[in-house]
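Example 355.
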Amino acid sequence: MQALVRASLEAIRDPETGRPLSKTGQLRTVAVTAGKVAIEAELGTFAAPLKRDFESELVDAARNVSGVDDASANVHLVERKVLPLGKISLTAKAVIAVGSGKGGVGKSTVALALALALKRAGCRVGLLDADVYGPSLPQMTGVRGQVGKSEDGSKIAPHHLDGMPLMSIGFMVPPDQAVIWRGPMLHSAVTTFLRDVDWGPLDWLIIDLPPGTGDIVLSLSQQLPVTGAVVVCTPQEVALIDAVKAVGMFRQVKIPLVGLVENMSGFICPDCNKRYDIFGKGGARQYAEDAGIPFLGEIPINISLRQRGDSGSPMENFSDPLVAPHLERIAWNLSRHLANEAASRPLNVSLPVLG
Ligand code: ADP
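Predicted structure in complex with adenosine-5'-diphosphate:
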């Protein structure tokens, strides 16, 4: 039975690489005693949000083998080696650009929430505030002050929030100084952020883009392979028109669209628990469906969320039952989508042996 159970488990695909477990060596031990299976397996930290799903998949695969009465799986997160991306020295498994058609829709809030949700699940995450015109990361995280040099003096040492490296132009210029930059300067700022910051090995680099269409996206797409873009919009139709433009821009520079998030979608009255759809309802989900973009989820209007953004205490969102599930859902859906993509990559499909 041991061999049958193993064969069943080995057919499962690693969520990170899409490769079957027979090829990845992730199954540490498979112990079968008297119809009971105990599995010890590994999962790269990149796919940490999917840890529970992976455990269930292992358990189900074992239970499907006849003669197995019960199964349990214990998945250990392991830090896998990451390679430099493109020509720059940044080592990251995935780079996600978070954009929006216009300002004020909650793009920075979503970028920070996504980064924190992935970090809390167990991923190695960095957050880059590339909104050079209106850097909001210092305010939203409460992390302020000029950044210094790394230990060996060769790189910029980023600030950290709960162990997560953060970088923002707001850590380089005084808060009251407006940044007036021309295209080439923007290009070199983005290069500096990507190449000269001591990010360490990352599973995910989340980039908060400036709103609208623009130079930064072009710069980014020229410098490294961006895994995908997440577009944030609000439900009202006007915002959606802007979101459509943002989607068009990413498509033009060949950055895959990996998600649409509807923010400020409905308000649940804290006094009566009644939901008010202030900006309408369902437009973003419908648009995502029509445009073939994964809908990652919605975040309702929430006064505490806004207050925590203003006071630099975003971690508190994760202990708020009205907010946390929405944020975690977005990170989970994004991980799920990338896992599905990895599994469907033709490279990993085993070809029939001819002849
Ligand atoms: P953008 O990056 O698109 O300009 P921000 O993330 O800076 O937008 O958000 C703009 C303002 O809206 C901030 O004060 C933020 O706290 C608030 N905000 C964002 N999302 C929500 C929400 N779901 N509920 C309440 N306030 C929100």
